[in-house]
Every structure is written in structure tokens, then in C-alpha cells.
Design goal:
Number of helices: 8
Shape: globular
Mean pLDDT: 89
Order of helices and strands: HHHHHHHH
Structural class: mainly alpha
Largest sheet: none
Distance between the termini: 35 Å
Strand content: under 5%
Number of strands: 0
Length: 228
Amino acid sequence: MSVVLVKILIGALFGVLLGLVTIPLSKKLILSRSDDPGDTLPLKNKLLIASLIVAGVLSAVGVMLTGENTAVIVRNMVLLIPILSIAVVDSLIRKIPNPLLLAMILTQVAYVAYVSITQHSTQLLITSFIGAFVGLFACTVPSLLKIPVGAGDIKYSGVIGLCIYLGGYFQAMVIMGLLALVFYIVLKVSKKGDMKTMVPMGPLLSAGTVISMCFPLVDSLVSEVGIF
């Protein structure tokens, strides 16, 4: 029980810091990509700040309690930093900053290198590559069919596949779809929009990714049947 409490405490402290750091980080990234300083005004909203802290705490505690080993926990905790900032920036200016995607890629590369060296196996490298390919392909196809998908969304999708692999990626996409459905229902009921209303993909995919990192149900099933 004491170990669990320590993990919760560490996760809570990290989550609070994560939520607070996300504000200035997101502001800097928004100002570097927008000509309108007013785009950063929502970051001063106390409700948004509180929501980011809560999201950070829940995410970090979830990672601490569900990580299968120290290496996975460290990787996932580091990934939370760009993931939360992507959700904020994309929700405000509909753009996904490349530096955050690069940070996720470098984190995963370091993790894959560590696992490959310590386990003397290239299996995780292959799994990551397959996930990245599927993530890119899954979002590229709609764009070829004239369905609007931003370049940032395509790149983010590929990075998510790289980081949480094939099963985790599919689970994240399903969760994103369910969250989008809930969002559209709320818009419809409140009469603030309809199915034609554009919804930023970043926040929804970020939420699906964090949930899939903590509870990789589909990934576990894929592993059990021996696929990838």
C-alpha cells in the first residue's frame, strides 16, 4: 500500500507541475505561430488553468500506477509534456507544433534504443515502425479522398503510432471517435453547432493516447494473438 501511495504522490506532484508548465509553453508556441496575441488570452482563464492541472494530475497518476516498469513510466511521463501542450495549442489555433512532435519522436527513439540494447532485440524497433506507418497511412487516405485532414494531424497520427504501436493507436483512434461523438451531441443539444462543425483533432487524440498508454487493452489483445 505504501508503494501505491508514493506513486500517487509522485504522479500528483508531477501532474501539478505539468499543468502549470503547459501554460507558458503553450503560450510561447502559439505566439510563434500566430500573428494575433489575442489567441493566448484563453490561457489566462482560471478554469482552463485548473482543468489543465486536473488533467495533468490524472494523467501522471495513471501513468505511475499502470506503468509496467521504470523505463515505461519515465517514457510515458516525458511524453505527457508534449501531448498536453499539443491538446492546448491545437484547440486554440488549430495547429500542431513540430517541436512537440520532435520531442515525442526523440523520447521514443531513446526508449526504443534502451530496450533494444538491454534486451538484445530489434522487435520493438520493428513494432514502432509499423505503428508509425499505419498512423501516417490512416490519416493520409482521407486526405486523398478530399476529406479535410491537416498536415499536423497526419504527422501527429504517425507519431502516436510510433509511440504506442499498432494496437494502442487503434484504441486511441476509437476513443477519439467516441469523444468526438459526445462532443457533437453536446453541440447539437446546446444548439451551438452540428455535425459540420470543425473539431480540432489534437485534444481528442491526445486524450485517447493517454488513456491507451495507461490502459493498452487493444495492444494487449494484439500481443496475445501474436500479431506484431
